[in-house]
Amino acid sequence: LHARIAEQRLAERVNVVHLSDHGMESVMPKNFINLTSLVSAELRYDTYGSTPVLQIVPKVEQDRSELYRQLRRAADADGRFEVYMVENLPARWQYNNTRRTGPITAVAQHGYGFDDMWRTVEYYRKHFGVEVTPDTQYGMHGYDNAQLAMNSIFFSYGPAIREQLTVEPFDTVDLYYLFCEILNLAPPNYLAGNVNHIQHILRNGSRDDDDDNDPNGGGSSDATTRAETIAVIFAGSLIASFAIVSVFALGVIYQRRRREHMVPPYLYEETETFIDDGNKMLHTSTTNSSINGDVVSVDV
Fold first, then answer.
1. Parallel/antiparallel/unpaired status of strands 282-286 and 53-58
2. pLDDT in tens, 65-84
3. Among its keywords, does the record have Transmembrane (predicted)?
4. DSSP sequence for the chain
5. How far apart are CA 130 and CA 28, in angstroms?
6. Alpha carbons 226 and 21: distance in angstroms, whole number
7. Longest dimension (CA), the chain
8. How far apart (Å, rounded) are the C-alpha atoms in residues 101 and 83?
9. Which of 39, 56, 130, 161 could be 104's S-S partner, Cβ–Cβ 3.0 to 4.6 Å?
10. What are the backbone angles phi and psi of residue 152, rounded to the nearest 5°?
């Protein structure tokens, strides 16, 4: 990719952003957690999702509180996972505002998984002949994104990106603002990110950017763009107004000439006009004009 960009001489025009959607962690069979063994046998439930986050739904709604109480007690004693009622989920996860979240959520700590992982073990053993030991490592993601191991990668270069800059971690949703800034697009107002988290990455996004000749940190560029837009609109309005007036004038001229052609030509032959001082009336008389020998005169 980078070689082709250089070959096509696009390095000064193209901004390249390399990303991953999440980090990775390894989990081994010896660290699988058997949830069923941690609660009473009479408490029956279904699980949805997969390690490291399971949605737990009791088969009997009345068992919800007791099931949570037993799981909560086991989590505190075990230390390898956390358990939440839907109303107690951390707000930063944005899990508690969707109907797809179950009444109880279990979240494994880094490096641990739940017993649903045995299905994955069997899949790899059957389809790929993987010999499983207690220390066999499987790649896993989906843990708490506040953990460093779950951070995704980000590196970028291009005419809009500052050079030799190491940035602090920021939320993935902030990338939408970054792309909008690079493409000079107005971001929608419903985004959950923060444009301030990515402004310093851009050449024109910082007032103290030595490489940026604009002392206003890109503000004058925006002002110039707005001025150019206004100028284009004004010029377009003038052109449109001139076109409308021209069409109207041509229409008037056309109508006048059309009326002239509708009047018999003999009315315009040798016409004499004079003013009567007595009654101030205009008279037009026509002489030497005849149709079939009849003399025609017109009084106006």
1. unpaired
2. 999 999 999 999 999 999 99
3. yes
4. -HHHHHHTT-TTT--EEEE-S---EEE-GGGEE-GGGGS-TT--EEEEEETTEEEEEESSGGGHHHHHHHHHHHHHHH-SEEEEEGGGS-GGGT-TTSTTS-SEEEEEPTT-EETTHHHHHHHHHHHH-PPP-TT--EEE--S-TTSGGGPPPEEEESTTB-SS-PPPP--GGGHHHHHHHHHT-PPPTT--S-GGGTGGGBGGG-TT-TT---TTTTHHHHHHHHHHHHHHHHHHHHHHHHHHHHHHHHHHHHHHHHHHHHS-GGGGSSEEEEE-TTT--EEEEE-S-EETTEE-----
5. 13
6. 36
7. 129
8. 13
9. 56
10. -90, 170
Length of the chain, in residues: 300
How far is CA 96 from each of CA 89, 100, 101, rounded to the nearest angstrom? Answer: 6, 9, 7
Q: Cβ atoms within 10 A of the Cβ of 176, count?
A: 17
Q: Give the chain's radius of gyration (CA, Å).
A: 41
Task: State how far the Cα of 188 lies from the Cα of 236, in Å rounded to an integer.
Answer: 28
pLDDT, mean over the chain: 81
> Which amino acid would we find at residue 294?
D
pTM exceeding 0.85: no
Residue at 33: amino acid letter = I
The encoded tokens of residue 35 equal 């949830």
Q: pLDDT tens across 148-167, in order?
A: 999 999 999 999 999 999 99
